Structure formats: C-alpha cells, structure tokens
Amino acid sequence: MQFQFPWARSRANAAPSHFLVRLFPRVDKSSDAYDAAGRFAHARKFLSYYRPHLPLLAADLACALLVAATALALPLCANYVTKSLLQLPQVPEAIGQIYLMGGVMLAMLALQVAAVFFVDYQGHVMGARIESEVRKELFEHCQKLSFAFYDNQRVGQLMSRITNDSLWLGELYHHGPEDLSIAALKFFGALLILSFIDPVLTGLIAALTPFAVIYALHFNRRMNVALQASKERIAAVNERVEDSLAGIRVVQSFANEGLEASRFDEANGLFLESRKDGYRSEAWFSVGTATFAQLVTVLVIVVGAIRVLTAELSVADMLTFLLCVAVLVDPVERLANFVRLWQEGYTGFVRAMELLDVAPDIEDRPGAVDIARASGAVRFRDVSFRYNDDGAHVLSNLSLDIEPGEFVALVGPSGVGKSTLCALIPRFYEVTGGSIQIDGMDVRNVSLASLRRNVGVVQQDVYLFSGTVAENLRYGRPDAGDGEIVAAARAANAHDFISALPRGYDTDIGQRGVKLSGGQKQRLTIARAFLKDPAILIFDEATSALDNESERAVQQALLQLTTGRTTIVIAHRLSTVRNADRILVLTEDGIAEQGTHEVLMAAGGLYAALHSVQASI
Q1: 3-state secondary structure 550-564
Q2: What global pTM score does this model have?
Q3: How far apart are the first and last CA of the chain?
Q4: How far apart are CA 598 and CA 604, in angstroms?
Q5: pLDDT by residue (tens digit) across 466-480?
Q6: Side-chain half-sphere of 483: how many Cα atoms within 13 Å?
Q7: Number of structural domains, the chain?
Q8: How far is Cα of residue 489 from the mean position of the Cα atoms in its chain?
Q9: Which of 50, 254, 256, 432 is the most exposed place for a label (fewest CB within 10 A)?
Q10: Residue 362 lies in a domain
C-alpha cells in the first residue's frame, strides 16, 4: 500500500540555533543516533547522492538561474518601455523603440520557456534516479540483515520505509536546489533593483520580511511533529493491511472480518488525526505567506502612490515596483514549497538512514575465504547460543562431530534447540560461544556466499514465491536446465502432481503458493533444495505436511540423495529417520542419546519412549 503525503512542512521539533541543525532536524531527541554528529553525517550522506549526477545538477541549476534572471529582466524592460512613451516626443520613434524592446522580451520569454522545460523534465529525471538509488540501497541493505534483525521487525514497517518514505525524495532532490537558487536570485535581485528605484519603499518591504520568516519557522516546527507521526502511522496502516491480507484464510476461517476491520479502523483513524494536525498547521502557514504577499502589494500601492504625488517616485518606477513585487513574492512561495518538500522528503530520508544505520550483525570477516564444494565434515566445538543478550541459553557448550556423507537425525521435544542448531551452520545466527567448523575451517572465516552455496536448507516454514512452478524450482539454481528441474521434482516425488497442473511446470502457483496444497508446497521446497545440490543438506521437519504415501516416496528419495553429501534431518515423525546413520536425542541438557535406530530402541531410553508414544497414536 502506497500513500503520498500532500502536506506537512516543518523543520524541527526544537529550535536549535545552528543553521545546519535547523536544516537537518533532530527527529528523536532521546536517540544517540540523532545527536549533532549523526545529523551532520546524514547531511553528508544526503548530499553524496548528487555526486553521480553533478553535470546534470549543474545544468539544472544554470537553467534555474536563467529562469530567475529573465523574470528579473522583464520589469526592467517594462520600465524602459514606459519611460520611452513618456520621454520620446516622436510617436514613430517611440513605437520603434517599443517594438524593439517587445522583440527582446519575446526572446527572453523563449529562453525562459526552454529553461523551464529543461528544469521540469531533466530535473525531475535526476530526482527520480536518486530516489531509485536510495530505494535500491535500502532493499539491498535489508537483504544483508540477519534473521535476528527480522525476528524483531515487522514487514509492513520495513515496506513503508522502502516505499512510502522515499516517494518524496525525488521531488526534494530535484526541487530543493532549484527552488533555493531561484528564490535567492529573485529575492535579492528584486531587492537590489527596488533599492535603486526607491530605497525608502524597499526598506519598508525588507522590514516586513523577518516577521514572515519567524512566522514560517514557528509553524514549520509544529508541522514536523505531525509529519513524523503521519509517517509512523501510515506504516502502521501498511502493517495492518499486509498482516490481515496475508492471513486472509485464517481471518475468514475464524469469521474475524469484523475484528480485522476494527483494528484497521483504529490504525486508519490515528493516521487521519495526524493528517488533520498537519493540515491545521499547513493552513496557518499558507494564510501567513499569502497575507505577507498581499501586505507587500498594498504597501507598494499606498506608499508608492503618495510618493508619486510628492514627485519622489515616477509613474514608470511605480509600475516597475509593482512588477518587481510580484517577482519578490515568488521566492516566498518557492521557499514554502521547499519547506514542504524538505519535511516530506527529509523526514523520510532520516527514517531510511535509520534502517541503513543498522549494521549487519552477520557479515564476512576481513580475509574471509571462498570454499569450493565442501566434503561436508561438520564440527561443533563447545557451541553456546542465546537469542538475546539477557535471554537464557538455547544451547550450552555443545560439541558434536558429523562425518562427510553421514546421515544424522535430530529428535527430541520442542524447544530444545534442534532448529537453532541447524540454523547456526549456515550462519543464519551467530554463535555466542564456541565455534562451528566445516572441513576444519571456522564458518566465520568462510565467505557467506560460498558457505551458503554449500548448505541447503528445507525449512519447516514453507515459503514459495509468486510465479510459476519452474521459476520457484529454479530459485535453487538459476542456471538449471529443464531436464535438471524435472529430475529434482521426480526425486522429491513432485513430478506427477506438477504434470497434472493446468500448464505443468509453467503453472502460476499464486502468492506464497496459495493454489497448492500443503503437501505439494512442501515437496516443491524439497525439490528446490535438491536442485541446489549442496554438500550439506538440512531438513527441518520438512516432511511434516506430507501424507503417508508422499512421505514414503520422499524417504526413498532421501536415501538416494544422502549419497555423497552430509544430511541433517530434524524429525518429528521418527519413522522418517529410522534409516539414519546416527540419531541424536537432544534435550535441554544437550545430547542425551545417540546411535542407530536399533541401538537406541535396544537401550530403552528416551528415544525408545518417544517411539512408543508415536506408535500408540
């Protein structure tokens, strides 16, 4: 869900004195990430996105200055024409001068039109490119963050930062430099022209300006609060929509459409309130800027007329004054537009930088090496792990050796760390103590890309992407041929049901595979892992959704695929692993038993008890 904010224009929650502190506001006063150093770092980061586009930025600014210069020149031309009418006694001579100046003004107008077209088109293209780059950087950064990060985040909130928060960045990157340069040249240029014509009247206009600036800054600060709240609340709306629609089958099965509607109404209502606050401040802001423009016009008409009557100002100069006042008001409007875009764009930029400031907690160490195809020896040496620094250990000082090509099964009660143990091998999480080695090399010294190429995981939580069956299978190995895809599907006992689909392997399976049954989806994920052909294969209760017939077929496939690769299977159904080379019974205290099915049954311990319970069901 995307929403574009048409309002909100503030600078800061507080009123710090330094200009850059005003320009790059503190969004969260309580966060160390937004102290002075952080704001200056974000300022440098913000400006750095212009670097690849400096030639286009220079051309855009040149055209913007040309627009401002021609706007300032037109009142001077009008002044010249008016004086020509009054001073030249011969009508033909005056008409000639007027035609000449009319031609000059038309030429300037043509130049202005060309400059405006360039600014509007190429400037917007530059802004859109930068916006695209920021969004790309955010997405790629999110791909690098570990499972631990996503354990504490909500997808809807992240989607909002990547999409909604960057929507206005393109406009800011385009209009920011353009509006500031045009506003500055028009304002100071108009004041300079007016000061030559009538310093007294110019001084009166300049005296009103600080009041307009103070007024604008006051309401800017109020609108910043509303804008920040709006961005957070539209993110909550996105989150509510994503969560509800993704789980629509659960919602409808429990007949909780009304509950979801009320939750959405609550989030949507809070967003509406934040927008109302912003609109109220925006209204005061707009009223103030419009009033300033009208006050200046009235001042020029009244005071100018008096000075004309007292012969201190000519009619031609008063006409020029009125035209320049119109030019002078434009910078105020552009400044208001810049402030709006700044708050809409930069508050989103700050939220984007908050995400980019999250350093991946799992990444390649300096000097990490690539490994080719591993032999598959896995060693756990006094491995300890906990999900939070202040949480209890899931694993404590666990040691385990798995030989190349060995088929090892992990069984035991829920919550003893079976899935966690396997997630540590490809470094989905980082061990908090000890080490894990593959072929004698600490996995932390191996590049993540090569490590994960050697480890295939079929997770308990089945996930398929939108697209066709073939596209989902080829996700395991993008360069796989059609024959290899079919072979992997046959190995996972998936070929027959795929062939029965309306378009076979080219059938679209819908978002998250909603058009398939649970067992079919699970067999596709198994086939995807088979196609990857890793040296180490991990099955995390990957047959839990299969019917008995499919489970037997997958067991046969497992026996074939374990040849030449290390296989670790987490199993709830003990029948799935009775042919394993070794079965490990994991408890809260570590590995309680290990051995083959026959050895453990003969021992009459925990495994035998678990087997008896399942056999009696």
Answers
A1: HHHHHHHHHHHHCCC
A2: 0.70
A3: 47
A4: 10
A5: 788 898 888 888 888
A6: 0
A7: 2
A8: 36
A9: 254
A10: no
pLDDT tens, residue by residue, 122-154:
888 888 888 888 888 888 888 888 888 887 777
In a domain, residue 17? The reply is: no
Q: Are residues 285 and 148 in the same domain?
A: yes
| CATH classification at residue 450 | 3.40.50.300
- Of the CA atoms within 13 Å of residue 544, those in its CB half-sphere come to 13
How crowded is residue 480: how many other Cβ atoms within 10 Å of its Cβ? 18
**474-483, 556-565, 574-583: segment of lowest average pLDDT:** 556-565
| HEC-encoded secondary structure of 270-337 | HHHHHHHHHHHHHHHHHHHHHHHHHHHHHHHHHHHHHHHHCCCCCHHHHHHHHHHHHHHHHHHHHHHH
396 and 306 inside one domain: no
In whole angstroms, give the CA distance from residue 482 to residue 501: 17
Average pLDDT, the chain: 80
**Domain residue limits at 438:** 378-615
User: Which of these three, 291, 325, 356, is where a domain ends?
Assistant: 356
Based on the fold, state whether residues 267 and 409 are members of the same structural domain. no
Burial state string for 229-239 with b = 16 or more CB within 10 A and e = fewer than 16: bbbebbbbbbb
Same domain, 342 and 473: no
Contact 330, 71 (CB under 8 A): yes
Burial class, 133, CB count within 10 angstroms (exposed 0-12 / middle 13-18 / buried 19+): middle
Determine the Cα–Cα distance for residues 328 and 68; give it in Å rounded to an integer. Answer: 11
Asked whether residue 501 is assigned to any structural domain, the reply reads: yes
In a domain, 372, yes or no: no
Residue 584 is predicted with a pLDDT of: 92
Same domain, yes or no, for 341 and 429?
no
Query: Any residues with CB less than 8 A from the CB of 491 and at least 6 apart, and which?
Result: 527, 530, 557, 560, 561
Burial of 295 (0-12, 13-18, 19+ CB in 10 A): middle
Concatenating the DSSP letter of every residue in 147-201 gives HHHHHT--HHHHHHHHTGGGTTHHHHHHHHHHHHHHHHHHHHHHHHHHHHH-HHH
Spatial separation of the C-alpha atoms in residues 552 and 614, rounded to whole Å? 17
pLDDT at 87: 64
Rounded Cα distance between 395 and 380, Å, is: 11
Which of 321, 356, 391 is the last residue before a domain boundary? Answer: 356
- The span from the CA of 96 to the CA of 59, in Å, is 36
Q: Are residues 527 and 610 in the same domain?
A: yes
- My answer on whether 506 and 405 are in the same domain is yes
Which CATH number characterizes residue 203's domain?
1.20.1560.10
Beta-strand ranges (E) seen in 467-610 are 536-540, 566-570, 582-587, 590-595
Residue 435 shares a structural domain with residue 289: no
Structure token digits, residue 330? 């434009």
Whole-Å CA distances, 55 to 58, 60, 154, 274, 343: 5, 9, 40, 40, 26
Answer for the pair 363, 428: CB distance below 8 angstroms, yes or no: no
How far is it, in rounded angstroms, from Cα 372 to Cα 446?
11
Which amino acid does the sequence have at 551? E
Copy the structure tokens of residue 278: 């912003």
Flag whether pLDDT at 13 surpasses 60. Answer: no
Q: What is the DSSP string of 5-45?
A: --------SS--SSHHHHHS--S-TT-GGGSHHHHHHHHHH
